[in-house]
């Protein structure tokens, strides 16, 4: 059951962000949750499904929505608990098996049985797991700055430096306090993630504009808007065990080497788990926020991968 409506917002909401604001929703599967997404490109074209990370929402894919609509139906989702998508109140509703099932159900709600799946950060983790659990649904997998989940869990146990970089996973286990910290000083933590020298987009990157920052602040300043996103992390230690680990579709892994949260060594190790064509590209000057930081390069690399896979099939 997919319902669409045009919804042009005025007044209090950020200008450029809301130029996109045709609201589309899918009521999904057994969960009955309403998922908000923004789509570009004609219905009936091959589906490209985009999964954002933390603390983001569909808007982090704005450059890709524009770029790939010529050949794809491009759908950028607000994940469960994010933005305008429904946010169940209990943390048990954010277990990884629920998040994986969401993607399967959304695909079906959109009228597709397969897609090019692209994920960044936490959305990358979900994309890997969907590709492993439902390989028939993913024609090509593209992940940005997140290693294969088995690499991540094995690496973090052996490398204290990565454990420290992932310290926020542990911090987010606390109830209510992490949300409160994010709101202090007009959401200073949220802004600094994207703009500070340590974690943000660098001097050579495509820095977020004041309007971009305003869009993020608008979404995450809504009442309760941070609890759903943090609940994703609050179930991580009870995550489903993987029955198998192999990825069998062509896979592209893109990585910003200046990622403050993920050590680049994990990118190369990921190769072990991909039993098909695997391409890894590491961008030396780029940050964790790669598809926003270097959109032109990222888009070119994705086009090259998609076209070389089409050519490979013909041969």
From TrEMBL:
<keyword id="KW-0378">Hydrolase</keyword>
<dbReference type="InterPro" id="IPR000639">
    <property type="entry name" value="Epox_hydrolase-like"/>
</dbReference>
<dbReference type="GO" id="GO:0004301">
    <property type="term" value="F:epoxide hydrolase activity"/>
</dbReference>
<feature type="domain" description="AB hydrolase-1">
    <location>
        <begin position="46"/>
        <end position="291"/>
    </location>
</feature>
<dbReference type="InterPro" id="IPR029058">
    <property type="entry name" value="AB_hydrolase_fold"/>
</dbReference>
<dbReference type="InterPro" id="IPR000073">
    <property type="entry name" value="AB_hydrolase_1"/>
</dbReference>
<protein>
    <submittedName>
        <fullName>Epoxide hydrolase 4</fullName>
    </submittedName>
</protein>
<dbReference type="Pfam" id="PF00561">
    <property type="entry name" value="Abhydrolase_1"/>
</dbReference>
<comment type="similarity">
    <text>Belongs to the AB hydrolase superfamily. Epoxide hydrolase family.</text>
</comment>
């Amino acid at each position: 059951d997919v319902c669409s409506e045009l919804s042009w917002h005025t007044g209090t909401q950020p200008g450029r962000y809301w130029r996109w604001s045709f609201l589309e929703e899918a009521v999904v599967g057994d969960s009955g949750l309403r998922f908000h997404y923004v789509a570009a490109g004609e219905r009936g074209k091959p589906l490209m499904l985009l999964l954002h990370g933390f603390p983001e929402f569909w808007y982090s894919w704005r450059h890709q929505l524009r770029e790939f609509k010529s050949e794809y139906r491009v759908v950028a989702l607000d994940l469960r608990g994010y933005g305008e998508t429904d946010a169940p109140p209990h943390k048990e509703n954010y277990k990884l098996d629920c998040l994986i099932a969401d993607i399967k159900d959304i695909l079906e709600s959109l009228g597709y049985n397969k897609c090019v799946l692209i994920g960044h950060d936490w959305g990358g983790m979900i994309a890997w797991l969907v590709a492993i659990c439902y390989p028939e649904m993913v024609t090509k997998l593209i992940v940005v700055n997140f290693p294969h989940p088995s690499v991540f869990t094995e690496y973090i146990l052996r490398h204290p430096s990565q454990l420290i970089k992932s310290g926020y996973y542990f911090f987010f286990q606390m109830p209510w306090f992490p949300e409160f910290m994010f709101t202090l000083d007009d959401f200073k933590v949220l802004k600094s993630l994207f703009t500070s020298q340590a974690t943000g987009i660098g001097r050579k990157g495509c820095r977020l504009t004041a309007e971009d920052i305003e869009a993020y602040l608008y979404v995450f300043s809504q009442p309760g808007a941070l609890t759903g996103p943090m609940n994703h992390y609050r179930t991580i230690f009870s995550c489903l065990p993987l029955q198998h680990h192999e990825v069998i579709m062509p896979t592209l892994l893109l990585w910003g080497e200046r990622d403050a949260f993920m050590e680049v060594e994990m990118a190369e190790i990921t190769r072990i788990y991909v039993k098909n064509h695997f391409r890894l590209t590491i961008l030396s000057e780029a940050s964790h926020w790669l598809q926003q930081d270097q959109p032109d390069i990222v888009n070119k690399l994705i086009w090259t991968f998609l076209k070389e896979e089409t050519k490979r099939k013909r041969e």
